[in-house]
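U., I forgot to send this yesterday:
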Amino acid sequence: MAGLAESGSNPDVELLYDINGLAKDAPRWFDRGVEFLGEFGLLIAMVLLVLWCWWAVRRRGGEDAAASVAALVWAPLAAGIAVLVNVPIRGFVERRRPFLDHQGLDVLVDGKTDFSFVSDHATIAMAMGVGLFVANRKFGVAGILLAFVEGYCRVLMGVHYPTDVVGGFALGTAVVLLLSPLAMALLTPVMKAAEGSGRASWLIRGRGRAAGTEQQAVIPGARSESADAAERDLAA
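Result:
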């Protein structure tokens, strides 16, 4: 399996050259931007997206707040588990980095000496994207789109074959969905316990949004029923 995708006639290699060829024609600043995004930027953006979703969930409140936060906690945990699952996969496949077997690639980042299949970056990004989708559809779609951009950048940088990225997407998705029932069964009671705790309830709900209640909007000029009742009692 170490010789996987070594033939120049392989569609995997041809697509690699087609995508990586864009880096050769791009200006230097574009390459540096892709390098930052592909190595760190998009993963940082994914973490910020998870935090944004958590903030939106706790502000909205509702009966499903604890379950939604549990799903958000599961997203990074699933990404970590998927990376651990990838360790034996890499050792079994032993696919070398594409620039070690194919000449003429424009490699945007140095120091990649480990095996190529599957891509850790693609695995982490898709696991967090799908985990977000489990928690919130709107944020999840944004997360999955970021994962696709991450995978594209890894090929554009010349450090992964397209199938490395596809394998990472499949691994991240599988870990999230297959282990999600067990993870939610374990995490949801913990989040509900935190919701009922005075010290940790802020993790689940914003201030003033106690479980099962919602803040009432105060309309300028409006009178409460209790005030009207008090006036009727005085008039009597």
